[in-house]
Amino acid sequence: MAEDFITTKLNPDNHLLLEQPLIRLHYELSRKNFKSVQKQVEHDRGQILSTLKTVANAALSGSQDPFQALATVESMINRLEALGQKLQAVQENEKRLQAKSRQRIKHLGELYTMQSLIDVKYEEWSRTRLDRLLVDYLVRHGFGNTAKELVKRKDLEGLTDVDVFEECYKIELNLKTGTGLTEALSWCIEHKALMKKERGNNALEFHLRLQQFIELVRKRKLIEAKAHMQKHLAPQTEMYQQEVFEATGLFAYPPTTRTEPYVNLFSTERWNFLSQLFVKTHHELFAIPEYPLLQVALWGGLVALKTPTCHSANNSRITSSRSAMVTVCPICSTELNDLAKGIPYAHHSKSFVENSPVVLPNGRVYGRERLRASLAKIGVAPGLIRDPITGDVYVESQLKPIYFP
């Protein structure tokens, strides 16, 4: 009984290892929201105080026309009103982020009210989590409309971030097609301060500026290209010396050149590189995992099951009626075999071996008694042995027992 309790006991802390992005993303979005409004307030405050000081001094000295002074004050009032509207929009966005964060904290807090994995409440909670993971997987693979429909049907608006991913992948798609430089650069400028603090440097912005330079050279707009280099690339020479040096050489080569490294700089493959770099930068900035959480969760389960046999030459992923009565190893299945190739083998400190193990001529190992019981159910003739997975038929005398020291 004690062992059954241990295997079904729910450990909330283990679940939270997979759920960190659920909270972290909105924390990063709130921080970005605060930083943007802080920068705007400080900028407008400095401008208004400077103007107000000038007007006050001019009024005291009597050197300014009253109508001009009134116009300046009205301009300051308009600026304050515009700032107030911006702050109101930011406040509404902050309220939305806080409401989502509260809903997510409540969702995760429900784990601490459950004691067992067989609790009915846990089954409901885990179904909600699966729906969240499916939404995350769908939107990352370009099925945004399907993800939105699932969010709508399951009422997952507060627990998912379809809009964040859609913005990211829209820019990624435009970069792949060679039309997203302006959007990507605007995104970099908007998040420049945050990227500088978190990443130390902004490789994405540099490579986007480099691509702008390449496109100007490709169109033979050499004067504009030179001005662009002096403004955006030359100041980065210390950090990107090799890249700037190679870019300078483009002035001497046409887009049809076959000379390295200029052929690579002119190559359209750079658009794929830029799109991948943008997604990587976006996800790192907002603490979004590189892979979909559904895939991460599957890896976590598969790593506990994987053995060298799962990817051996003797492994067969046949799913026919001959193996319908046999439990198929998840890793050996057609659906998950490729997904499990990149993960390490499971580490088991205890060995669980079937009673009276025997090996078939094809190298597969089964417990003798379980094999006989299985064959009796499917009506195999006495004296014959059929591999439950591959269907190969052997004479019983061909079985060889296995002995462990």
From TrEMBL:
Zinc finger residue extent: RING-Gid-type: 329-390
UniProtKB keywords: Coiled coil, Cytoplasm, Metal-binding, Zinc, Zinc-finger
Residue span, CTLH domain: 181-224
One term of GO molecular function: ubiquitin protein ligase activity
Listed GO CC annotations: cytoplasm; GID complex; nucleus
Keyword Cytoplasm: yes
GO biological process assignments: proteasome-mediated ubiquitin-dependent protein catabolic process
Predominant location: cytoplasm
Subcellular localization(s) per the UniProt record: Cytoplasm
Protein name: Protein FYV10
Source organism: Gomphillus americanus
